Amino acid sequence: MTNNQRKRLFYLIRQAKLPEDARHALIHSFTHGRSESSHDLKEEEASDMIRYVGSLLEEENRAEKMRRKIISMAHEMGWKMERGRDGAIRRKADMKRINDWCQKYGYLHKSLNAYKYKELPALVHQFERMYLEFLKRV
Phi and psi dihedrals of 116, rounded to 5? Predict the structure, then answer.
């Protein structure tokens, strides 16, 4: 593995917040069981692993964008926390209410952050339908 590949790989691993055991398992997988150490990665294996970890990050970024869309719609419907625990006035989305809705009405009955990337489009669609009904009533 080249020095640039090593830098890029560890940068991506830090960004993905992969625990050490997961990192070793990935390396074990990409070396086809030959090693669990990044020092033993060949250039081609390192390139494949860089692409894979990069795709994980990209997927998580897209998932986060969908979660933010739901939070934004909830905020527009007035699902806001007016006061924080310290009594200060804040205008933040009421995450408890959003999570309660996702657990009660969401098609998988999980909290918002528990929905995986592939599950989120259906949840966004479901929340959009409720949001559009809200707009019709306003």
Answer: -85, 165
